[in-house]
Amino acid sequence: MVKVPVSDKEGSSVMENGGYSDYQLVRHFRSVLEEVTKGDRGNYDELVGYLHPKKNLNPDEVAILVTTLRALSGAVCCIDPNHHESLLFAVSRMSLWNYGTEVMDALLELIISLAASNGKYIDWCLEMLVKHFVPPFYLIDSLNNENGIDRKNKVLSRVHAALKEIADLVPLAPLRLCPIVVQNMPNVFSKEREIVIYFENMFKLEGGAIGEIVGATILPALVDRLLELDVEIGWDGILQEDSRGIFDMELEDIIKLADEDDNCHNMPQSELLNRKNLQGNQVVEKLDSLIVLALLHLESCQSSGRLTEVFDVLLPSFQKTVLNAYKSKFTQFVMFYACALDPEGCGVKFAMVLADMFASDLNPPITRMSAVAYLASYLSRAKFLSAALVTTIIQSLVDLCYAYCKFRDSDLNPRAHQVFYSGCQAIMYIMCFRMKSLMDVPRLKLQLLNMPMEAIWKHKLSPLKVCLPTVVVEFLRQAKAAKLFMASESFVFDDMLESDLSKAFGGMDRLDMFFPFDPCLLKKSESYIRPHFVRWSKVRTTYDEDDDDIGEVSDSGSEVSDDDFVDTNTRDMIDDDLMVTVEDLDFNPDLNKMSITPKNSLKYGRMPARIRPSTSPESL
Amino acid sequence: MEWLKVSKANLTVYIHPSKSNQVSKAVLRELSSLLFTFSEIVGGVVLAYDVNSLDTCAKILPGVHPYLGVKLKANLLLFCPKPNTLLEGKVVKLTQESIHVVVLGFSAAIITEKDIREEFVCKTKKGQEVYASRSNKRHVIKVGTMIRFLVKSFDEEILHICGSLIPDHTGSIYWLDKNLEVVSHADRSEKKKRIEPERIMLEQGAVDGELSNLDIVQKRTNAKRQKHWEES
């Protein structure tokens, strides 16, 4: 160690560190740093030498390193980025992951002192801390064992404590931290473990003391990264085939999956096939793990009572990115789960916001169509929403559609009236899932019967001819059984289907076939979603006579219990969820074989029903 | 309080055409982007704004993107610390090498050892480091103390302040005010001495960072007169 001159005054203080007090060392380091500006670099270079990373430090070397770092913390005011570049570089190469707790603490003390000493270093220090979110590549694999987990906890708890301390000393630091965290986020091609541990840190940051400030930036960035992974998986092309009759084919296709593992017992074959296709796909597995992290974070937010705040950040982010992303497949389940955790608050708000987006003329048509597709799928699939809320939303959709067609005398034109048709399809889709449960409640039944639905269906714009035939057929079948259209003497809607038109109103993006909350194909995430999710096989339909005796809905109508969707017949065992999402997903575990180019789906044209992917509404 | 002032500003905010259906919201968003950043135009850090009047006519800029130029008048609350002026802040960390202060809850300031006058020595009391005056035992600076210090420099990008405790009229605000009071009103009763410091602190917090002796005397006289009025 460099020789430290001791004056009489300093000599009287407590002696430590081999005869010198901390204060004397600090004074000495200051003079060493100041000498550099005068051209004397001898002691300085020796000092920098102590900081260069070495493997297998012996106890003496550790002691010297700790002492050097501590003394530097006291001398930070003399560090000048122009003259002491090599010192800063040496410090930046040090990794907390490589040292014991003593060196860790000393290094963090130096970083905190640097951050607070001068505005110039704040970004440098924050970046250095953020770099520690992920261990060096050679340590990543060791995180599975006990030592690895212990080391991870030691490093990360210290890093987050240091960020908190810097935020206390420099209150605006969190604002500078946000872009640094977002910029350092691993990209979609990073290893799963790397991206997962980084996400863990981001969630920890969001749930920590400075979460209130950084959350507004970090959460949308997280959702965007999920979405990037989501679109990386890619829908394989746009279906061009006629969907007529597919609903029936799907029903024929049900088999009992007795030999599958427990989790898959009640899964329709098509879903299982697609899930199997997903296995081995690294992007899918990454996304699955990250979504599970997000769901767990939402749970922790709920238990700490800040779910509403987090949801208020997530919602605009969803509106901006996820909603407009081309057929996002999985990311939206984060919103779904947040709603499930707080049905009265978040759940209702989500539905209302989507309904408002659809209603607002200010939004472009594609956004409105997407919003109503989300709304329809959400209301159909969310087990936790009350029947009263569903009826209210149906009422508002019907009113909007009725007001639209009331003053239009033109004939059907799918492209010109695409928003209208998407609204009509949403109404029918929701009714397919909910009609039975709503009709069982006298008050809601009356409300449904009073809606001017029949006028919409009979209008010259002919929504029944334009909307997706599978949805229309199912809706008409249920409506007939429920005697929804009592006003008409005879049931006049037969033979109104012209399915080709639905492609036209859906546009290139085929929004007519977009049902965002169709069963989630991600294995781990799905287990969280399942308890809150309605499968088509569990839906009681109005024409299903056998179900009438089972689980009568209470007259209150205020809430739809789980029983509304519980079907005790054998369908439990052979869940016939007609996979919508799945139909045109052609997941291929081999990334190289993935294509975003639309495929000519006519190749499926002659496939037997058993292996042929269903067409929409897969969800039915 | 010269480092905190209200400015009336005539501004033109340029709104992107896509926001033309919600101009007032877009204007507020643009103004919000000024918050907590140093603006050379207004010569300080904007802490708050209050739009007084919004021109109903907007000028459309010619060009590829026809931005709307909306004129408005606003009151801006500015934080503009100048070198060699006094600032006040709360001590958040104290070491032998430096005192860390936060001003108005958002701006970080540091006073390094060389900028602390020799009167102060760093001691450890009950496991906590404090700076205590050699000449006045009660003049102590510790974590949580509100101090008055001189601005040496202000980093406009990071809003980081370098401060100094060299001048005699810097240090713990509580002690400085009390000390001034003791010097000028040595004859006051014990009871009044206990009450007055609080009153002075409040007035000083609300009115100005630096109160002269004269100000305090004037205020105390006013308070006394008021009391007489109430009694009579």
TrEMBL record, chain A:
GO molecular function, one term: RNA polymerase I core binding
GO biological process: transcription initiation at RNA polymerase I promoter
Superkingdom of the organism of origin: Eukaryota
Pfam families documented for this protein: RRN3 (PF05327)
GO cellular component terms given for this protein: nucleus
Coiled coil: none
Stated family: Belongs to the RRN3 family.
Protein name, UniProt field: RNA polymerase I-specific transcription initiation factor RRN3
Natural source organism: Phaseolus vulgaris
UniProtKB/TrEMBL annotation, chain B:
Key words of the record: DNA-directed RNA polymerase, Nucleus, Transcription
InterPro entries, per the entry: NA-bd_OB-fold, RNA_pol_Rpb7-like_N_sf, Rpb7-like
GO biological process: DNA-templated transcription initiation; transcription elongation by RNA polymerase I
Keyword Transcription: yes
Tree of life domain: Eukaryota
One of the record's GO cellular component terms: RNA polymerase I complex
Stored Gene3D superfamilies: 2.40.50.1060, RNA polymerase Rpb7-like, N-terminal domain (3.30.1490.120)
Localization per Swiss-Prot or TrEMBL: Nucleus
Major localization listed first in the record, in broad terms: nucleus
Functional summary from the UniProt entry: DNA-dependent RNA polymerase which catalyzes the transcription of DNA into RNA using the four ribonucleoside triphosphates as substrates.
Annotated protein name in UniProt: DNA-directed RNA polymerase subunit
